[in-house]
């Protein structure tokens, strides 16, 4: 037995608005052996971060540790004086925060922050610490390991910052590292790089770690054992393979079920005649930010063409900054395009809100990502739902009241909720109200912007279920924006892939899992972690592949493939000189690429793709 | 040092010039609206209309207002704010003799107030909710609420009349030793500092508290940094922007406070000069002083913005 961490009977309480203490962690017990990685998994409010922070003897504002013990080596962290705690933090136990962008001080250089704990704890001189940091940067596969330390946090990417934070945590060779959702804020293609770097240093250094996450698939790659938490209570503890393949607790089983995107696909399906009934078309859309319309500013969207058919769901997918939200805002009229147009039932819509009629507003409704900010906290649910009813349909009195009740029923909420305010509802309930508000207008098209991204897996899955049902009941069309390919695949008839403001691929539902893919979609598809330990090692080969070299100095003329810098299949002398053609595929859909269908299939055929067969 | 900063400074100087132009117009209009003029004030109530008219013609006051405005503005542009109507001296000389005194008073007040306010603000932020914090908060509200003339009068009552430690007036012309200096400056500086320190301390506290709740401060604590290190090396560099603005705003308030304090303690600065000028309807002098106060205010705000940029690496590059 080589136990270095032992937590027993840990209880944490939080003070609520009335000033009463509410227990949020009820007697947690677990232990870690040296060199082991233990995952704490659960949804928001499960207490996983609270438990992780108590390993450093720390409780966030408003919380305090009320009982139990946290034994690290032979000290009880919870009994230490503030001075002794300061000596422990960053030295014996170190912390990697969820958002590196926020956890790095914007006004200090990266090197100063990475070596700070070594200097605070005087484990080595500044010179030694800097040398060690450069070594860690190299181990973590960071570009320019010698020079990156002299930059400021805003000058490096999010994925790099997250790895730099790992260097910061490892600089003092701590006995235990706590990783708090370290990849949650990253795009999947970035997440995979960060996970690979983490896994490598953890393995090579024999680091003992606690890995906090809500994502079972990520945890499957990182952890030896998993602790499943719900409402501050441990539901199940077991080895990773056992939890994933033979979960004993019903809650673990429901978590696993929510991860499986195949479950909802049955809800799709439409008749052939609807296929040609296009409700909304986007033609040659271009959006620029900044300097006016006349060729200036930054191009955010370019050459966008797409059709949304009545009753169909079109998924728009891309990483942060790809322009997907801008596309929805341009369709809704909130961003004026610099070129191209949006047609509703064949009739061109005004580029701005001012020129649109009330009926045009009614027909296209927008569902915002974050119900917390989209719903006025001062209004009751009834008031929130009544406004569009009055505005679009002139309803009042009993008729409106009745319609509010119908809408609540439509989104599967009890009518008694009408008298409450958004603050009294759960995240999932608020998102349902958000949806009901858009439906109140009786729209023909809903623009759904990351509507499940802020929700827990189980709650998000229920919202997707509801949306699929509503589509059948009301025959509305959706444009469904997401960064999560799994979500989009499970409910969409057609998937549009955006990269750097360009449409690189359109894919029909029937063909969604088979090559050819655009090289970017392929990277995206293979970057989503599978619920299977060992997956990360298998994909290592394909992400670390050396890119074919390109002749330098050809410059960047407009219209070239946006993915050229990251593409493993780029062709020197072609991709860097000629804009790629939009290739129509035999099986429907199109790809913006120089490579022929056969070439893509050949290159991609060997790779196993992520599909519903996951768990 | 870089393009962002250079662009900001140029833009500010440009808009500053425009502001000054507008202010000059407003100052001129308002002074023109004051009842009576220098000729009447100089000759007194016994004067015959003929003598007043003659003096007016001599001063050029019989010219139309827009003509006098442009004449004055043209003078300002070449650095000549005109001659005093009350005693015929050049306005530039009059101001030149008094300005150093006012600057000295303001500088001493700032030197005392800024470090004191920053210390109080930072300490209150660090020990938020403590007895110290609550006491300072209450004291600050009290200090801001009491007008300067009252503080000055109370100080005179206490130190000059009751305790007889200090003279009621500030004799700056007879400073030969440090104790003379203290006797002359203690009460004016004390009066000015009360409101100043309170305002700056409160804004510093808010700025530091804002930073203390940020994730990177939590991160620093989890690296084992002690509270004092967290505040000084993590929170404070990011609070420089808001604090600099708070200091600039408070110091500009000093410009207003100085008028009251100088007149109560008969301190021979530019504010007493301006007050006397108003009494004698010596418009060239009043206008020049007003423009000077406005210029001082704008310079302070510019310095605050520049220091906010210099302290922020994101804006620096």
Automatic annotation (TrEMBL), chain A:
The keyword 4Fe-4S does not apply. It is a peripheral membrane protein. The keyword Membrane applies. It is found in: Cell inner membrane. Keywords: ATP-binding, Cell inner membrane, Cell membrane, Membrane, Nucleotide-binding, Translocase, Transport. PROSITE patterns: ABC_TRANSPORTER_1, ABC_TRANSPORTER_2. GO terms for molecular function: ATP binding; ATP hydrolysis activity. Residues 5-256, 282-525 form the ABC transporter domain. One of its GO terms (biological process) is peptide transport. Its main location: membrane. One of its GO terms (cellular component) is plasma membrane. Belongs to the ABC transporter superfamily. This is ABC transporter ATP-binding protein. It comes from Denitromonas iodatirespirans.
From TrEMBL, chain B:
GO terms for cellular component: plasma membrane. It is a multi-pass membrane protein. The chain crosses the membrane at residues 12-34, 105-127, 139-161, 181-198, 243-265, 285-310. It is found in: Cell membrane. InterPro entries: BPD_transp_1_N, MetI-like, MetI-like_sf. SUPFAM superfamilies: MetI-like (SSF161098). Keywords: Cell membrane, Membrane, Transmembrane, Transmembrane helix, Transport. Residues 99-304 form the ABC transmembrane type-1 domain. Its main location: membrane. One of its GO terms (molecular function) is dipeptide transmembrane transporter activity. Pfam families: BPD_transp_1, BPD_transp_1_N. Belongs to the binding-protein-dependent transport system permease family. This is ABC transporter permease. The lineage of its organism: Bacteria, Pseudomonadati, Pseudomonadota, Betaproteobacteria, Rhodocyclales.
């Amino acid at each position: 037995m080589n136990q270095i961490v032992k937590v027993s009977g840990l209880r944490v309480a939080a003070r609520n608005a009335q000033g009463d203490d509410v227990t949020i962690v009820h007697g947690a017990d677990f232990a870690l052996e040296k060199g082991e990685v233990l995952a704490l998994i659960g949804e928001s409010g499960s207490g996983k971060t609270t438990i992780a922070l108590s390993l450093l003897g720390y409780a966030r504002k408003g919380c305090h540790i009320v009982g139990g013990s946290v034994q690290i080596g032979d000290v009880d962290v919870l009994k230490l004086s503030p001075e002794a705690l300061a000596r422990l933090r960053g030295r014996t136990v170190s912390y990697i925060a969820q958002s590196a962008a926020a956890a790095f001080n914007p006004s200090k250089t990266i090197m100063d922050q990475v070596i700070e704990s070594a200097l605070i704890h005087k484990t080595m001189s500044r010179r030694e610490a800097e040398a060690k940091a450069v070594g860690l940067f190299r181990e973590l596969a960071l570009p320019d390991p010698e020079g990156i330390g002299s930059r400021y946090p805003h000058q490096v990417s999010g994925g790099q910052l997250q790895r730099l934070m790992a260097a910061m945590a490892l600089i003092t060779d701590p006995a235990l590292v706590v990783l708090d959702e370290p990849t949650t804020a990253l795009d999947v293609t970035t997440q995979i790089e960060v996970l690979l770097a983490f896994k490598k240093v953890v393995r090579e250094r024999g680091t003992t770690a606690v890995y906090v996450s809500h994502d079972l698939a990520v945890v499957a790659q990182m952890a030896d054992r998993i602790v499943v938490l719900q409402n501050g209570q441990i539901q199940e503890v077991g080895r990773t393979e056992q939890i994933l393949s033979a979960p004993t607790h019903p809650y673990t089983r429901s978590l696993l079920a929510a991860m499986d995107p195949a479950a909802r696909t049955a809800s799709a399906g439409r008749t052939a005649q609807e296929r040609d009934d296009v409700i909304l078309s986007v033609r040659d859309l271009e959006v620029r930010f900044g300097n006016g319309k006349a060729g200036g500013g930054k191009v955010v969207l370019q050459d966008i063409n797409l059709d949304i058919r009545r009753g169909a769901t079109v998924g728009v997918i891309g990483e942060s900054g790809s322009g997907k939200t801008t596309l929805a805002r341009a369709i809704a009229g909130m961003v004026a395009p610099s070129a191209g147009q949006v047609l509703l039932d064949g009739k061109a819509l005004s580029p701005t809100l001012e020129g649109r009629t009330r009926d045009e507003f009614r027909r296209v409704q927008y569902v915002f990502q974050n119900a917390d900010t989209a719903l006025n906290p001062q209004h009751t649910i009834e008031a929130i739902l009544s406004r569009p009813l009055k505005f679009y349909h002139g309803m009042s009195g009993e008729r409106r009241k009745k319609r509010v009740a119908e809408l609540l029923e439509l989104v599967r909420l009890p009518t008694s909720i009408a008298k409450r305010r958004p603050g009294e509802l759960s995240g999932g309930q608020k998102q349902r109200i958000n949806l009901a508000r858009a439906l109140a207008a009786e729209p023909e098209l809903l623009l759904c912007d990351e509507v499940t991204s802020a929700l827990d897996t189980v709650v998000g899955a229920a919202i997707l279920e509801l949306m699929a049902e509503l589509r059948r009941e009301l025959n509305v069309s959706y444009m469904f924006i997401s960064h999560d390919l799994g979500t989009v695949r499970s409910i969409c008839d057609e998937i549009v892939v955006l990269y750097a403001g360009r449409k690189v691929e359109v894919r029909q539902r029937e063909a969604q899992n088979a090559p050819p893919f655009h090289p970017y979609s392929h990277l995206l598809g293979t970057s989503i972690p599978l619920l299977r330990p060992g997956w990360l090692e298998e994909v290592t080969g394909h992400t670390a592949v050396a890119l074919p070299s390109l002749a330098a100095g050809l410059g960047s003329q407009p219209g070239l493939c946006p993915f050229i810098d990251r593409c493993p299949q780029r062709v020197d002398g072609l991709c860097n000189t000629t804009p790629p053609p939009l290739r129509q595929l035999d099986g429907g859909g199109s790809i913006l690429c120089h490579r022929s269908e056969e070439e893509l299939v050949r290159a991609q055929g060997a790779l196993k793709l992520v599909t519903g067969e996951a768990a | 040092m870089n393009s962002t900063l250079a662009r900001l400074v140029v833009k500010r100087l440009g808009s500053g010039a425009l502001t000054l132009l507008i202010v000059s117009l407003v100052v001129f209009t308002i002074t023109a609206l004051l009842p009576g003029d220098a000729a009447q004030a100089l000759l007194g109530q016994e004067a015959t209309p003929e003598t007043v008219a003659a003096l007016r013609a001599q001063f050029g006051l019989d010219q139309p207002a827009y003509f006098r405005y442009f004449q004055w503005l043209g003078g300002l542009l070449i650095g000549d704010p005109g001659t005093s109507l009350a005693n015929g001296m050049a306005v530039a000389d009059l101001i030149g003799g008094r300005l150093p005194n006012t600057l000295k008073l303001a500088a001493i007040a700032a030197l005392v107030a800024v470090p004191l306010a920053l210390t109080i603000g930072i300490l209150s932020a660090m020990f938020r909710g403590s007895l110290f914090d609550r006491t300072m908060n209450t004291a600050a509200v009290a200090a801001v609420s009491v007008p300067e003339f009252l503080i000055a009068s109370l100080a005179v009552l206490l130190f000059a009349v009751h305790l007889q430690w200090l003279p009621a007036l500030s004799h700056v012309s007879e400073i030969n030793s440090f104790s003379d200096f203290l006797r002359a400056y203690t009460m004016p500086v004390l009066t000015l500092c009360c409101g100043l320190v309170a305002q700056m301390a409160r804004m510093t506290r808010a700025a530091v508290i804002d930073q203390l709740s940020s994730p990177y401060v939590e991160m620093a604590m989890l690296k084992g940094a002690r509270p004092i290190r967290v505040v000084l090396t993590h929170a404070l560099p990011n609070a420089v922007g808001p604090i600099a603005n708070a200091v600039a705003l408070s110091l500009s308030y000093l410009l207003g406070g100085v008028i009251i304090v100088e007149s109560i303690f008969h301190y021979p600065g530019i504010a007493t000069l301006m007050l006397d000028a108003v009494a004698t309807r010596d418009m060239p002098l009043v206008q020049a002083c007003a423009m000077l106060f406005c210029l001082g205010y704008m310079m302070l705000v510019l310095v605050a913005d520049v220091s906010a940029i210099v302290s922020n690496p994101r804006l620096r590059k």
